[in-house]
Amino acid sequence: MSPLPYEDPDGVSYDDPDRVSAPRLSVTRITRIHPPFPARYDQHTITRAPAHDPVRARQVVNELSTVAGVLEELDPVRRRDLGHPQVLADLDYVTVGCWGSAVQITDPAFGEGGITYHLDDAFDAQVKEHPDARITGVCEMGFSETYAKYLVHVPGVPRVSADGWDDMYLTGDPVQTLRAIGVTPGEPGSADVSVEDLEGFVWSAYLDVLSSGLHVPFVSEQLRVSVFKVTRSQDIQDAIEEVWHRH
Known about the structure:
The protein is an alpha+beta fold and about 250 residues long. About 20% of the residues lie in helices and about 25% in strands. A hairpin with a 2-residue loop joins β3 (about 95-100) and β4 (about 100-105).
C-alpha cells in the first residue's frame, strides 16, 4: 500500500489477484451543500473556498452508515491528487472534504455494478440526516463497460435518479431541480438539460451546478481532504466484495 491512498502501486499487474475489478475508472462520491449555499466556484474563485476542516471531517466519517470504525487518520492530502482504488487494500480508505458549507465524501462502499443499491442506501441516510442540504450521489464504475448512477436531492422537489450502462433510466425531473435552485437550463454556466435526449445530457455539468462547482477538482486547486482507514460491518464488507473483488 502506498502512502497516498489510490496511487497506482508499482509492480501490480492486471493479472494480480489483489487488483480490484474496476481499476482505471471509478467515482463513488456523495456531496452535500448546506445553506447558506455558496455561489458556484470556478477555476478562479476556488482559491477563495474555505479551508478544509479536519475536525468536522472526523465527525462526518464517524457518522457514515458504511463505516463501523476508524483505525487510522492520515495527513490531509489535496483532493486533486487522489486517483482510483487499484488494489483491494485501497477499499479500506474513505476521504472527506469539509470546506465551509460543503461536505464531500468518497467511499468505495458507494460502488455498484447495476444490480445492487449500495449508493441508494448511503444516499438515503444522508438525506434523512440532512434534508435541508443539496445532495448529489455519484457512482461510475469502469468494468468492461461503464456503469453509472446519479442521485440528486434538492429540498422541496422530487428526487432525481438515473442509472444504467449504455442507456440511462431516469426518474424525476432535472429541469425542476435546476429551477428550484434558481438556475434556468441553457443559461451560461448551466447544463443543457433535455429529458427527451439523455444521450446529449451532460451529467457532469448538471451535477457541477448542483454542487456549487465542486463536482470535479480543478487542475490548480489546493482543496484538501482528510483520509481515513476504516473498518466495516460484515454486511458492508460483503457488499464491497460483491462489487470490487475479482471473481
